[in-house]
Amino acid sequence: MGSSARIAWFGALSALVDVSLATDAAGTEFLRANSAKEGVVTLESGLQYKILRRGYGDSHPAVDSSCECHYQGQMAKDYGTDVFFDSSYQRGSPTSFAPNQVIKGWTEAMQLMVEGDKWELFIPAELGYGARGSPPAIGPDSALVFTMEIISIDGAKVPASPRCNVGTLEGCSDKEAEFIAKHQARSAEERAAEAKRLEGLIGARTTPDKIAWMRSRLALLRAIVKAVEKQEL
Length: 233
Fold this sequence. Notes:
Protein name: peptidylprolyl isomerase
EC number: 5.2.1.8
Family: Belongs to the FKBP-type PPIase family.
Organism: Diacronema lutheri (Unicellular marine alga)
Strand content: 15-25%
Number of strands: 9
CATH class of the largest domain: Alpha Beta
Enzyme class: isomerase
Mean pLDDT: 88
Number of helices: 7
Largest sheet: 7 strands, antiparallel
Number of domains: 2
């Protein structure tokens, strides 16, 4: 089955599943223990996520906007192993789909993500394939774990609140804070030269993590320039 057909298959199943009364006992215990782990955020819906890589985008996808993504999924019982029921990474190419074309857990998570984000998603059955499951790969009432990254948003976007405030450093990682401090002390010419250097590197063949950090630095440089301009007015 091709990647686009596979996603359409997932989306069709998500629309047809019975709403599960509860995730099975093993999945419930997995999610309970997982919620206490460092970096894991639990939302009101029951969806859990952990940010593996912070993105560089400034917008979320609209619910019907196609997004180019990489993902892989596994049963909660297989978490920590190399056993996946589906993986675009293993196929060697990303796939495109919109938040409203997939299971509820993905729909919610994608609308919180920005370009460059790479998250781990821990999804109860109620937000996955429910009581029906998706035989033979996914059993009924199963908790699932996905790794997902949004490479690009190819449709309408919803502005996102800044995650890293270059003035107060609120929401900034240590890595981002170090970069901000370094470039706030530099001249406008030096910041422009660094931006030009990064723009030239983005087209080079390198890892997704390195590209995401390059784009993040470019976004931070633009934010620093805006902050400096406001101070000078």
